[in-house]
Amino acid sequence: MVEPGIHDDETLVADAAEDEVRPDDRIDDERHDEENRLKPEYVRGVRDALEDGDKTAVYDLVEPLHPADIADLLELVDSEEREQLASAITDLMTSEVVAELNDHVREVMMEALEPEAVATIAEQLETDDAVQLLEDLDEDDQKAIIAELEPETQAAVESALAYPEETAGRLMSRHVMAVPEHLTVGDLIDFLRENGDLEHDFHEVFVIDAAHHPVGTCALNWILTTPRSVKLTDVMKRDQTLIPVTMDQEEVALMFQKYALISAAVVDDSGRLVGQMTVDDIVHIISEEAGEDALLLSGAGDGDINEPIKEAYSSRVRWLIANLGTAVVASAIIAFFGAAIEKLVALAVLMPIVASIGGNAGTQTMAVAVRAIATNQLTRSNTRRILWKELRVALLNGGTVAVLIGIAAALLFSPMMGVVIAAAMIINIAVAGLAGVLVPLVFERLNQDPAVASSVFVTMITDSMGFFAFLGLAVASGLTG
Amino acid sequence: MVEPGIHDDETLVADAAEDEVRPDDRIDDERHDEENRLKPEYVRGVRDALEDGDKTAVYDLVEPLHPADIADLLELVDSEEREQLASAITDLMTSEVVAELNDHVREVMMEALEPEAVATIAEQLETDDAVQLLEDLDEDDQKAIIAELEPETQAAVESALAYPEETAGRLMSRHVMAVPEHLTVGDLIDFLRENGDLEHDFHEVFVIDAAHHPVGTCALNWILTTPRSVKLTDVMKRDQTLIPVTMDQEEVALMFQKYALISAAVVDDSGRLVGQMTVDDIVHIISEEAGEDALLLSGAGDGDINEPIKEAYSSRVRWLIANLGTAVVASAIIAFFGAAIEKLVALAVLMPIVASIGGNAGTQTMAVAVRAIATNQLTRSNTRRILWKELRVALLNGGTVAVLIGIAAALLFSPMMGVVIAAAMIINIAVAGLAGVLVPLVFERLNQDPAVASSVFVTMITDSMGFFAFLGLAVASGLTG
């Protein structure tokens, strides 16, 4: 329900006045270090004041902070201190601060409040921030809070929650500056003058036809530098990127990056403009999605340092158990060669080296492949070429490492041992290189997230092949008599 | 040398006209799949045309693409095809396409050109894109190309190259819309009308004092919605984020994210406005920096799938050699227990399980910690609390895995073996959990990049401790007689 124009939200609690004179140049103030983190001395000061129960001191210390920094502070202290802190700075706890909080910390804080209180906060937020506030809560809590919302907010929130998580429909802003296509630049400026609303920043004006379909966009700097008499349709950019309301957030983020967008129109199935996404939302998504790989590859789950213990345990342990499975498979291979090891215990000493380096080589290749798949740089069109390239890199790496360990083993044990371990190393690293590319691709083809599923399989392949190649070659070469 | 106003670049080669009518709604065109990648059939069509030497067909196929997509296409084909493609589409090879190319691919293409040709392309780019074009080239090539530049461009490029890589000074745009503070909104609009330049997008106007220091910013939507008579100093935002010219790109990206910025002023040591950074540059940096961890953690280096073989080899092999070192340390521990293994070969079968799971647990924790350090969520203020939390998660994980493997080992081997492996598992996972947090923190305290250096040390600790705990307990418990 987007009408051309701007929608007003009522604000019930004092928002920090935007034109208040505040210290500029955030870097060199006494509360932040050179990497823009709150200084430990400052945080300790706040903690001491909390311990003394000195609410006034706490308030005075926190008052000059930007909402994002207040959120940081709430995240740094432990849960007990957090409750005290929150109660000491009630009117600094604006909706801005709440919107900036880490998801887990915010969840805990919201759970401690009554539904009416949460609804009050939600009312002051933009729809997308309100939805973010509510979406991870218990379903019953969620229903209770939504029931307390004003009808307009309620409708917007429910409409957003109707879309799946992490899609454009869930994340978009419903406040869009949209104007009909017959206007001139002058008409538009007059309209903006009359209906000016400083609460909702916008960077572009969307031009729509009678059926509410976006036909072009006008960047604000174009509007400002074009004579009033010019028709919008003559100055607008027709080459536009439309985001379907069901598009996944990662795809949206990639589009924004690729086409260097500041904002983009979100359209429903029939092509009607229903909202917009702006680059500051995307920035958050990009960081999240790009940083996910390292966490997913190792099975660290959410990987948020603020994740509660129970959740961190349950997401990580399942991957450790999966790895237990692959380790047992590798051990079964060792058991198969048990007699050989009994005869030559040096095999037990050296075999973990082959498996370990192979595992590392596989992980390297996998990290590169997963990232390339995620950024659309590894596709069916260049798979063969990339595979061949990765194999050559693997052979070069394998050769180098094989020579080093081969010489060491030959000197410490026997020349034949040197040959065996060198050969096993080359084989394992080559296999690791291929597996590191192919396994993620297979999962991608099966529509599974490569970052999540590949690690277990690549490790299984490199461990098993490492032991098998080394022990097998040792037996085959007659080392064990 | 930024004067209030806008600077014009001369364009020597045809740029794609911006108001050309182009197909909108990029998603559902016949060349892209639903994830906005070029369809394999389309790419094959281009390749077939290249093979047939049919330059006209190639041109017709490529002509409708957005510059970013043309860059994608150049990246997908192999180096031979790329040369043919480039020669078939010479006037589509705008500076926009060159700016969008992957670094490695662009380097190869630029090396194939004469300095004068590269200089021509560089002239049409914004300074920051021109610098990106030149910065990775051979120093001699670089000098030759710079010598061919127009004096103004030459000065700008040399000034940018004077700053270290990946700093604000290197990456900033020198085109800034800056106006003196005594103007009114009306004055500003008139000024923009006269000096309007559609070539350089801007989203904010910076207000400077007589000493060229930024005193505030005016968002364009505020300018459009404020009456003409109002003074800029009354409507501008004084609360501004200033980026020092020496700030590292990762810090800049974090600031943009934290304070939800669209653009920010870059200032030199004396506080003078020298340029600006905008969020579309940041988006690229964020993706790069956030995605780096997985690659760095595994020693995959640049981790760019387009990296030439020689570079991929040299960055990855050094990590494999480092891992060879840690594997040898672990093997030395096994050798120490050689006699025990000779007596009970089951030890050789089971010991890799303990080391492997410990390694995974360590990697999980490390991935989380590295990310948290990079996003300023793990600082001295909450280290102790986080460490204690990670230890508890590790003990829970260790306990779970220990019970599973302990029961299996007790059934397959002997009850005492079950106890030994279970105990070793708990010890190793606990150690892994602590190491996964402490090692990155130590490196961060030593001003080294935790993502790069931690992996080797965490692996060494978990492998060594895994073998030592298991084999040591096995001997101590009398399993080996």
From TrEMBL, chains A, B:
Biased amino acid composition, Basic and acidic residues: 1-10, 19-39
SMART domains xref list: MgtE_N
Chief place of localization: membrane
Start and end residues of each stretch annotated as Disordered: 1-39
Keyword Magnesium (UniProt): yes
NCBIfam families: mgtE (TIGR00400)
Family: Belongs to the SLC41A transporter family.
Protein name, per record: Magnesium transporter MgtE
Species name: Erythrobacter rubeus
